[in-house]
Amino acid sequence: MNVGDLVTHILMDKDWLGMVLKLESCEIGSTAEHRALVHINSNHVFSGQYQKAGIPPQKERKVGWVDVVFLKLVAGGIESA
Prior knowledge:
By secondary structure, this protein is mainly β. Strand 1 (6-9) and strand 2 (18-28) form a beta hairpin. It is built from 1 helix and 5 strands; from the N terminus they run βββαββ. The termini are close together. The longest helix has 4 residues, at 49-52. It has one helix spanning 49-52, and strands spanning 6-9, 18-28, 31-40, 63-67, 71-75.
């Protein structure tokens, strides 16, 4: 997995689509965890929850960290070529 890749989340529906913005690894005890900062597609069912709650839309609200074990590659990005 690389920055720029399009990914889906294996536990979400087929409409969940994101782009990897950053990759990070960290040691927790004796294990290493790998996560990706992902920008989620604005058309996903969960993207409208903030507007329903009266919270103004912000780009940052559609960005979050996801453990890479839950991500599945859809298409490679620029760094994958």
